[in-house]
Design brief:
Length: 73
């Protein structure tokens, strides 16, 4: 089941615009702070936060059905 979740997450991440995907992966999966990402990319922290927010909204909607299926099992 865990591999199914990661597989679906990988697919959903691939559907995101690059700028949203990169911020989500760096912040959530690699544990970089927004400040660290900002310093290395030159992108303002608020812009990074906004991009991550849009990524989360998309991922939440995209993975909703998988979540429901797993609850039914």
């Amino acid at each position: 089941m865990r591999s199914l979740v990661w597989e679906e997450l990988d697919k959903a991440l691939a559907e995101l615009p690059d700028e949203q995907c990169v911020v989500f992966e760096l912040n959530e999966l690699q544990n970089f702070s927004f400040k660290e990402i900002s310093e290395s990319t030159g992108i303002p922290v608020n812009t990074l936060i906004s991009r991550k927010r849009y990524a989360i909204l998309y991922l939440r909607e995209r993975l909703y059905n998988l979540h429901e299926e797993l609850l039914d099992e």
